[in-house]
């Protein structure tokens, strides 16, 4: 119809659509379907003789949906708008008051998106710029504008737009999360706005901009999905940035210090939430990308400091600590032994004065000891492990089950 109908017929069709979208029940209970109907008017925006009908439908939606606390403006602003509105709009005010907040949010969000598309399809740059100016804090509009810039090949402008939007926000992480889950570009923005910046930097072949994005991913990492950015950053700077191995190590050392400061901020401002899924552990204070950086670059001092927040350090971290701090690595492993395992002065941390330090006589307890001995062997070798295993067995010479469990190390 948009392509072949004459202008009067198009007007009648869109008038019917507009009347349907004014249905109170649809606005309250089916806001998304309401906006899908309204967006059908966009099909007419590209035809000169029928464009005015598209403007009529979308601008009516703007009047109905966007003038009611979109940015939670002050009551004075709302009152000024009411004075300027006609009687029909006053009736709309009464209806809008009964629309649930969730439905109103959908109506407002998709009205903005439809308005942007209207101006884009109509090549109405002035209308689009005015809309962007009036709703500069709208994430949906800014994201659509960035995507449009990328489509038109203006990659640096899109990068700067995303960066400026992030810098103007109070919390980059929250804004990235919102961008991932706002219904636009689903599953295409795993890092929100930073994904936009990453795409632009790649398209520009700009090593510096791309390295900045990778650094942010490493700094903010809190699960294993982003650990590969350590290797990507190293390859980027070594292969395309021209850094030598020594220069890269210096860069990595500086990045490690930044990660350490970020961990301190997490401890200050984030609750410690630890979850387990399968064989993997997740903690709001841990940074798996930082762990990989520590291990890859053999940063023993950083590993020792970092492990203060890690209840059960993985073997790669223990091996890294042992490079320069072997006794500390041994203490970390032995601290995980069941209470009463060691009783010699060399392991004072397991002995409390006036307390019975006898090891609990359970096979499951012996199996825990065996597990720690295997970790010890993985870091310090079989010979030292054998000495340690003999000390434990000699302390409890009558426990056959203990000897059976530790037989691999004797």
Given as residue ranges, the uncertain stretches (5+ residues, pLDDT < 50) are 69-96, 344-354
The strand line-up of the biggest sheet is: 1-2
Number of strands: 2
How large is the radius of gyration? 32 Å
H and E string: HHHHHHHHHHHHHHHEEHHHHHHH
Average pLDDT figure:
85
Which geometry do the CA atoms define?
elongated
Proportion of residues in extended strands? under 5%
User: How is the biggest beta sheet arranged?
Assistant: 2 strands, antiparallel
Q: Structural class of the helix and strand makeup?
A: mainly alpha
End-to-end distance, in Å? 86 Å
Q: Give the helix proportion (percent range).
A: 55-70%
What's the helix count?
Answer: 22
Please provide a written account of the structure:
66% of the residues lie in helices and 2% in strands. With 410 residues, the chain is mostly helical. Strands 1-2 form a two-stranded antiparallel sheet. Helix 9 runs antiparallel to helix 10, helix 10 runs antiparallel to helix 12 and helix 13 packs antiparallel against helix 14.
């Amino acid at each position: 119809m948009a392509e072949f109908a004459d202008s009067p017929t198009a007007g009648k069709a869109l008038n019917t659509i507009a009347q349907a979208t004014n249905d109170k029940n649809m606005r309250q209970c089916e806001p998304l379907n309401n906006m899908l109907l309204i967006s059908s008017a966009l099909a007419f925006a590209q035809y000169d003789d029928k464009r005015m009908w598209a403007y009529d439908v979308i601008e009516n939606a703007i009047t109905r949906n966007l003038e009611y606390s979109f940015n939670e403006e002050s009551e004075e602003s709302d009152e000024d708008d009411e004075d300027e509105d006609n009687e029909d709009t006053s009736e709309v005010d009464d209806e809008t008051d009964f629309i649930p907040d969730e439905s109103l949010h959908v109506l407002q969000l998709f009205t903005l998106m439809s308005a942007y598309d209207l101006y884009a399809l109509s090549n109405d740059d002035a209308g689009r710029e005015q809309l962007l100016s009036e709703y500069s804090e709208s994430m949906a509009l800014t994201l659509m504008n960035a995507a449009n810039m990328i489509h038109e090949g203006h990659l640096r402008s899109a990068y700067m737009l995303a960066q400026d939007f992030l810098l103007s926000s109070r919390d980059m992480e929250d804004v990235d999360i919102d961008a991932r889950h706002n219904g636009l570009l689903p599953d295409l923005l795993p890092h929100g706005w930073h994904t936009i910046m990453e795409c632009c930097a790649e398209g520009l072949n700009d090593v510096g901009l791309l390295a900045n994005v990778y650094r942010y991913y490493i700094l903010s990492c809190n699960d294993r999905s982003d650990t590969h950015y350590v290797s990507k950053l190293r390859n980027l700077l070594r292969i395309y940035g021209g850094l030598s191995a020594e220069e890269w190590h210096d860069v990595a050392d500086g990045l490690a210090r930044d990660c350490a400061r970020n961990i301190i901020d997490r401890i200050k401002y984030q609750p410690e939430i630890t979850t387990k899924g399968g064989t993997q552990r997740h903690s709001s204070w841990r940074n798996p990308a930082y762990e990989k950086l520590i291990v890859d670059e053999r940063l023993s001092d950083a590993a020792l400091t970092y492990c203060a927040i890690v209840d059960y350090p993985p073997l790669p971290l223990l091996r890294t600590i042992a490079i320069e701090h072997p006794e500390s690595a041994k203490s970390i492993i032995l601290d995980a032994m069941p209470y009463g395992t060691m009783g010699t002065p060399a392991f004072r941390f397991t002995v409390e004065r006036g307390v019975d330090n006898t090891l609990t006589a359970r096979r499951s307890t012996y199996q825990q000891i065996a597990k720690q001995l295997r970790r010890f062997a993985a870091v310090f070798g079989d010979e030292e492990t054998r000495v340690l295993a003999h000390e434990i067995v000699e302390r409890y010479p009558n426990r056959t089950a203990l000897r059976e469990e530790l037989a691999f190390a004797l």
